[in-house]
Amino acid sequence: MKVLPFQIPKPEKSALIYQVDKAAQFYPHLHQHEEIQISIVLAGEGELIVGDTVNYFKPNDVFIVGSNIPHLFRNNPVEGQEAHMLTLFFTKSSFGDSFFDLPEMEYLQPLLRKLESGVQVQEKVSGIKSLFLELHGQSHFERMISFLEILKLAASSKTSSLSSFVYQKVYSDDEGERMSKVMNHAISNYQNPITLQEIADLANMTPNAFCRYFKRRTRKTFFQFLLEIRLEAACRMLKNNPEMSIVAVSEASGFNNLSNFNRKFREMKGMTPTRYRRE
C-alpha cells in the first residue's frame, strides 16, 4: 500500500464515498489524497498532524481535510477499546465539474476556501453527528441529501484552522515514507531526548540535508515541530491528570528542566501551566 499518495477505495457507481474506520489503530502513516475528507471521531483520541501542525483529536470532534493535504490521525491505543471514525470523501468534481460553482452552492464557498489548510468544526457538532450516524442505512440518494446537510451545518459554524502551512506538492512514495517515519518517531518518543543525528539517520540523510528538507516541507524546524508535540502532550496531562505536579508534567512531556518548560509553555500558550490547568 502506498503511503503517499493514498488511494481511497471507491465503490462502483458512487460519487460520494462513505467509510467506517473501526479498529485498534487508525491508518498509521502520513498520507494525502485527492478527495476532500469530512470526518467525525466517535471513539479514540490522539494526535492529528495536518501539514505543518500538530493538533489533538477526541470523541465528537469534526474535521474537514482538503484535497492533497498531508495528514495523519494517530490514536493512542487503549487495550480492549477500538478507535472509531466515520468519514465522507468527495472531490470538487465528484458531482460534475461545475457542481460547486452553481449559484445554489454559493453559501458553501467560504467553507470550501478554508479547506486549503483544513478546519475543525467548532459548532453544531451534535447535528452533524446525528447526520453521520444515519448514513449507514441510507440509499445513495438519501446519503447525498445528508452530505449536503452536513456541509450546510459546517458552513454556518465557527471553524478553526488545522494548519498554518501546507507543502504544495504531491509527495512521492519515498518522501511519504520518510516524513511518516520522522513524524511517527517524534510522536512516539517525544518524552525522551531526540538528537538531530538520530532523526537524520532515520531519514537516511545528513543532519544539514535533513534540516533543509524538513523546513522546506513544513516551514519550521524539526525541533519546533517536536516542541509543539511536547507542549500538546503537556496540555493534555495538565487537564486530564490534576494529581500530577507541574514538575512531573514537565518531565513526562520531554523537558529537561522546569524553567525551560515554563518559558516555552508561556511563549506558545500565552499563559503559565498553572493558569492553563485552572481554566
Please identify which CATH superfamily of the largest domain we are dealing with.
Answer: Regulatory protein AraC
Shape: globular
Mean pLDDT over all positions: 90
> CA-to-CA gap between the ends?
44 Å
List keywords for this structure.
single chain; 279 residues; alpha+beta; Jelly Rolls; Arc Repressor Mutant, subunit A; 3-stranded antiparallel beta sheet; globular
Fold and architecture overview:
This protein has 279 residues and is α+β, with helices and mostly antiparallel strands. The chain has two domains: 17-161, Jelly Rolls (Sandwich); 190-278, Homeodomain-like (Arc Repressor Mutant, subunit A, Orthogonal Bundle). Helices cover 40% and strands 17% of the residues. The chain contains ten helices and nine strands. The protein has helices at 109-114, 125-134, 140-155, 173-189, 196-202, 207-218, 222-240, 246-252, 258-269, 273-278, and strands spanning 17-23, 36-43, 46-50, 53-57, 62-65, 71-75, 83-90, 119-121, 159-161. The strands form two sheets. It has a six-stranded antiparallel beta sheet, covered by helices on one side. Strands 4-3-6 form a three-stranded antiparallel beta sheet, covered by helices on one side. Strand 3 and strand 4 (53-57) form a beta hairpin. Helix 5 crosses helix 6 (207-218). The longest helix has 19 residues, at 222-240.
